[in-house]
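Kindly inspect this one:
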Amino acid sequence: MQHGMTAEEFQTVIDRMLPFGQGFGFKIESLGHGRAVVRMPFSPVMTRPGGTIAGPVTMGLADCVMYAVVLGMKRDAVMAVTSNLSIHFLRAPKPAAIIAEGKLLRLGRRLAVVEVTMYSEGEEEPVAHATGTYALPTQSQAEGSAVP
């Protein structure tokens, strides 16, 4: 049986191993079996012309949530890497925090497939939807990785 990270352990990963996530203030709100929620507070440095949050920032949040979902299932997969990410921008995010909810679709020996739906805080309609695949480390790669 494989054991995943807790929300607190994944927040430590953000704070110590993901400088971009720390820079954007990513905060793990929940992490459970095959699910994760990450909050990204609003900052004016995230905006693009028109005052909306820039696409690359939203994509980075989606990727972080996918990573959280994977590590929530397999704590030894710290060396997992994104092998595919597809995103649909559904509407312009308001200048507010973005809440990203991730869900595991499939976990295999070599790949994990995850989906993420993102919302402007306080809004019911999603602003973006992403799917992605993570390549999982081999046993020898996992043995060489340090979990905080």
